[in-house]
Design a protein that fits this description.
107 residues; mainly alpha; rod-shaped
């Protein structure tokens, strides 16, 4: 065992350090990339396209991708949403300020 360590110690240490670094980075980046979700109340005159435009600076989707995501995750068939309906939308910002904004927009 001592001969193996003497011969391959640098390689073993390099592998251990690489695996540790990969694990730490994967934890760090996974937590930062997570999307936040906000539930909003649909108002009179709202459409999925209008909501996508309204929150365009708070998500990383194109309008079509945003609409597809909202329809899929809210079980919406067709393109119609109705006033008073609550829908969940994806956002990439901290929840604190956006939740207050979304609550005020839904009232």
């Amino acid at each position: 065992m001592r001969k193996i360590w003497e011969k391959y110690s640098y390689a073993i240490l390099l592998i251990i350090l690489s695996c540790s670094l990969a694990f730490i980075l994967s934890l760090r980046f996974n937590s930062n990339v997570e999307e936040k979700f906000v539930t909003i109340m649909v108002s009179e005159g709202d459409s999925l396209w209008k909501i996508s435009d309204q929150y365009s600076d708070q998500h990383s989707f194109s309008n079509n991708e945003f609409i597809s995501w909202v329809k899929q995750h809210n079980n919406i068939e067709g393109d119609r949403i109705y006033p008073g309906e609550e829908i969940t939308i994806p956002v990439n910002l901290e929840v604190g300020s956006l939740t207050e904004y979304a609550s005020a927009a839904g009232e």
